[in-house]
């Protein structure tokens, strides 16, 4: 895909990571390693792979490790170069050269909608993608490029959807949809409900952590009152867009590929296992061990 020069990317990373305490007492949850890279690097790489090279990370207090990770470390680079450790040197420098990465503080964590609103000055009049760091999308599966293309085609707000078990829909925003074209995996979103009970969910299509939005969403977020949990919910702004008969509306791209949830401790461990097992440098040693380990349980 040609570079998405008109798009910017926003990565909210101001959460406290309480589910991973005490590991996140001093380390941002976005810096927890997934095999040998911090989770947030996978997200930045996804945006870059889709052609976006201007990225804003929304951070909170004690998140300086994130900006340090994407900065150059000359003393480390010199040491690796002197040792002739070219492979590690290449990997260290890669994280510094990924994209034009900026940072802004959220201040108080008032919800995802508030975090997105903090990007207003940087985004300006550009359309932009929002990528949540809890959801890692396998680089072998296409999602963000499809969402960018659908936004360019329609002007609509685009959300990523994924079919989940009805027993799990209460953990997500759920979408009411209409199928209105030849592409079964692109739908019109007619409504959104934040974390509904299973019996109240309009479908089993869950909103996962990828959005493509027009800058006009900032006007809506500025007047959006705190909703569920006392926070400014991005879902509420999207609901308003979906209900506007005169606007471009909201479209959903249904993702059927590999997604790794790093926001839960068990799923975080599963993500590491899955990604490590698929790697050429680690998988051959790990896969036989997994079988032996599982057989002994």
Shape designation: globular
Radius of gyration (CA) equals 20 Å
Question: Order of strands in the sheet with the most strands?
Answer: 8-11-9-10-12
If you average the pLDDT, what whole number results? 89
Q: What is the count of structural domains?
A: 2
What fraction, in percent, of the residue positions are helical? 25-40%
Structure annotation, total helices: 11
- The helix/strand order is EEEHEHHHEHHEEHEEEEHHEEHH
The third-level CATH topology of the largest domain is Spore Coat Polysaccharide Biosynthesis Protein SpsA, Chain A
Please identify the structural class as seen in this structure. Answer: alpha/beta
The amount of beta strand, in percent, is 15-25%
For this structure, what is the CATH class of the largest domain? Alpha Beta
Please tell me the CATH architecture of the largest domain by its name.
Alpha-Beta Complex
Domain Nucleotidyl transferase: 8-275
Protein name: UTP--glucose-1-phosphate uridylyltransferase
InterPro entries: GalU_uridylyltTrfase_bac/arc (IPR005771), NTP_transferase_dom (IPR005835), Nucleotide-diphossugar_trans (IPR029044)
Family: Belongs to the UDPGP type 2 family.
Explain how this protein is built:
- This protein is of the alpha/beta class.
- It has two domains: 256 residues, Spore Coat Polysaccharide Biosynthesis Protein SpsA, Chain A (Alpha-Beta Complex); 29 residues, no CATH class.
- The protein has eleven helices and 13 strands.
- Helix 3 runs antiparallel to helix 4.
- The protein is globular and about 65 Å long.
- The mean pLDDT is 89.
- Keywords: Nucleotidyltransferase, Transferase.
- It holds the Pfam family NTP_transferase.
- Belongs to the UDPGP type 2 family.
- Its EC number is 2.7.7.9.
């Amino acid at each position: 895909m040609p570079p998405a020069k008109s798009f910017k990317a926003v990565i909210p990373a101001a959460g406290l990571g309480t589910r991973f305490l005490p590991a996140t007492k001093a380390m941002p949850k976005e810096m927890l390693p997934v095999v040998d890279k911090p989770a947030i690097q996978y997200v930045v790489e996804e945006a870059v792979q889709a052609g976006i090279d201007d990225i804003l990370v929304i951070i909170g207090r004690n998140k300086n490790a994130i900006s340090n990770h994407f900065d150059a470390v000359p003393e480390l680079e010199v040491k690796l170069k002197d040792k002739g450790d070219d492979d590690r040197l290449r990997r260290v420098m890669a994280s510094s050269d990924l994209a034009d990465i900026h940072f802004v503080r959220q201040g108080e964590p008032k919800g995802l909608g508030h975090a997105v609103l903090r990007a207003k000055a940087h985004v300006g009049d550009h359309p932009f993608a929002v990528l949540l760091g809890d959801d890692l999308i396998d680089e072998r599966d296409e999602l963000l490029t499809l969402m960018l293309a659908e936004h360019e085609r329609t002007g609509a707000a685009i959300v990523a959807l994924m079919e989940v078990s009805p027993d799990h829909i209460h953990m997500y925003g759920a979408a009411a949809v209409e199928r209105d074209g030849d592409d079964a995996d692109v739908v019109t979103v007619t409504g959104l409900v934040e974390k509904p009970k299973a019996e109240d969910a309009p479908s089993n299509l869950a909103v996962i952590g990828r959005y493509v939005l027009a800058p006009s969403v900032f006007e809506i977020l500025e007047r959006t009152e705190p909703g569920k949990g006392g926070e400014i919910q991005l879902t509420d702004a999207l609901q308003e867009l979906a209900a506007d008969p005169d606007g471009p509306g909201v479209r959903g791209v249904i993702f059927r590929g590999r997604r790794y949830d790093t926001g839960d401790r068990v799923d975080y461990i599963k993500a590491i296992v899955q990604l490590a097992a698929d790697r050429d440098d680690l998988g051959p040693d790990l896969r036989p061990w997994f079988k032996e380990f599982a057989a002994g349980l």
